Amino acid sequence: MTTTFDATPVVGVSGSPGATSRSRTLLEGALSALERYGTRTRRLDLAGLPADALLGRRQDPAVTDALAAVQGARIIVVSTPVYRATYSGLLKVFFDLLPQDALAGKVAVAIATGATAAHFLAIDHGLHPLLASVGAVVVATAVYGVDSQFRDGAPDAALLQRVDRAAAEAAALAGLVPALEA
Ligand SMILES: Cc1cc2nc3c(=O)[nH]c(=O)nc-3n(C[C@H](O)[C@H](O)[C@H](O)COP(=O)(O)O)c2cc1C
Q1: pTM score above 0.90
Q2: DSSP characters for the chain?
C-alpha cells in the first residue's frame, strides 16, 4: 500500500457502520486506482473509532489521529451509505469535529451507495456541500452505486469505471497527471 515517504498522501474515509460494506468496497477501489498514480493511501473506518469521542464528549488518540490524517492528505475520498436520503450520521459527527477550512485546497472524491437510484442526489445535495463546507474541491464525477449493482459484494463494471474516472479526475486536479482531455 505505501509506496514512498514523499508520495502524495491520500486518505479514504469510510462512513459505513457495516462490517461488510458496499460503499467501503468502492472506496477501496478508488484508493487502489489512486495508488496507480503513485500516491500513498490510508483508509479510515469511522465505525472503528470510539463513539463518545466521535460525539465530542471526550478526546481519544485514535480520533485525533484520524482528524490529523485527513488534514494532512492532499486527496480525500469519502464513502457513505445513503441513510434517510443523505450521508450517514457517522460521517456527519466526524466532519463536525474538523476545524473550519480543514480541507481547504484539497481534492475530494464523493462516493455513496443506496438501496435504489431514488436518492442519488444525496451526493449533490449532501456530500458535496459537506465537503465544500470545509473547503474541499470535489471532482465532477460522482460515484453512486445501487445495491443491485453488486454481486457477492463485488461492484459491476460500470460502477468500477465511474470509480476509475473519479480517481483520474482527482489525480489531475491534484496535479499528479496532466489535466484530462475533454
Ligand atoms: C438505517 C438505514 C437507512 C437507509 N436509508 C436509505 C435511503 O434513504 N435511501 C436508500 O437508497 N437506501 C437507504 N438505505 C440502504 C443503504 O443505503 C444501502 O443498502 C447501502 O448500499 C448500504 O451501504 P453499505 O453496504 O456501505 O453500508 C438505508 C439503510 C439503512 C440501514
Answers
A1: yes
A2: ----TTSPEEEEEE----SS-HHHHHHHHHHHHHHTTT-EEEEEEGGGS-HHHHTTSS--HHHHHHHHHHHH-SEEEEEEE-BTTB--HHHHHHHHTSPTTTTTT-EEEEEEEESSGGGTTHIIIIIHHHHHHTTPEEPS--EEEEGGGEETTEEPHHHHHHHHHHHHHHHHHTTSSPPPP-
With a 6 Å cutoff on the Cβ, whether 106 touches ligand 1 is no
Tens-place pLDDT, residues 14-39: 999 999 999 999 999 999 999 999 99
Q: Domain segments of the chain: what residues?
A: 5-173
What's the gap in Å between 114 CA and the centre of ligand 1? 5
Q: What number does CATH give the domain 5-173? A: 3.40.50.360
